[in-house]
Amino acid sequence: MIDKKIEQLKKLVIEEANLVEKMINLAIDGLLQRDSDMLLQVELWEAEVNNYEVQIDREVISLLALQQPEAKHLRIILMISKMNNDLERMGDLAVNIAENAQYLIKKPIIKKYLNLPTMADLTQNMLRDAITAFIGEDRELAAQVCESDDEVDDLNEQIYRVLITYMMEDPKVIKRALKINRIAACLERIADLSTNIAEETIYIAVGQDIKHQEIEE
Fold first, then answer.
1. What 3-state class would DSSP assign to 138?
2. Of 7, 42, 94, 135, which sits with the fewest C-beta atoms within 10 Å of its C-beta?
3. Is 80 exposed, middle or buried, given 0-12, 13-18 or 19+ CB atoms closer than 10 A?
């Protein structure tokens, strides 16, 4: 009985994750294609993510109260609860990207947004792989997600340094540069949250808590 309930919970959180991934993808595509309608759609989808969050929270509370799960069942349920919270925050960050992009698409482009498209691709891949790892309890794929976080951090730092240079050379680009920096910061945070999911997946798969430490071979 509890296994069936957990599978239903997994299905809901995977649907939520797929929607959040679509939001992030559409927010970046809307920026790069300079399409305001795409960006508006991202904001509309936020309500659906919020509905998923509420539904999953209710199911988690019900399972904990009525089934009194233990051991691995309990760990999985608690992980789903954390994922639900992380995914809702990613949805908020996707909306933040879309809102900043709405300003940028009306202005001249700064150097094709620097490394932002590359950073966005890597971040989206991390989220996708984190969810895939969760579904299959794939320790190796989850570890790869954790390793990719450093690449995203490096790209974020590169973008920041270049934007500082542009703002010093031409004050007229300051507002656009700040918007790009905010989008990069949102992507960096999404990568962090994807890493959280990967770390929890490793814990579920092998019982190893890797937060703040290296992954054992």
1. coil
2. 7
3. buried
Cβ contact 79:137 at 8 Å: no
Max Cα distance, the chain (Å)? 65
Closest CA to 140 of 214, 205, 73: 205
Cα 41 to chain center, whole Å?
Answer: 18
The helix, strand and coil proportions of the chain, stated in percent and rounded to the nearest 5, come to: 85, 0, 15
CB of 110 closer than 8 Å to CB of 166:
yes
Q: Are 99 and 166 in contact (CB under 8 A)?
A: no
Q: How many CB atoms lie within 10 A of CB 217?
A: 4
Burial of residue 187 (CB within 10 Å: 0-12, 13-18, 19+) is buried
* Angle, alpha carbons 206-197-22 (nearest 5°): 140
Which phi and psi (to 5°) does residue 188 adopt?
-60, -40
CA distance 119 to 132: 20
Per residue in 133-187, pLDDT tens? 999 999 999 999 999 999 999 999 999 999 999 999 999 999 999 999 999 999 9
CATH architecture of 2-206: Up-down Bundle (1.20)
Answer yes or no: is pLDDT of 211 > 90: no
**Alpha carbon of 193 to those of 84, 124, 203: distances in Å?**
11, 12, 16
The string of pLDDT tens digits covering residues 87-125 is 999 999 999 999 999 999 999 999 888 899 999 999 999
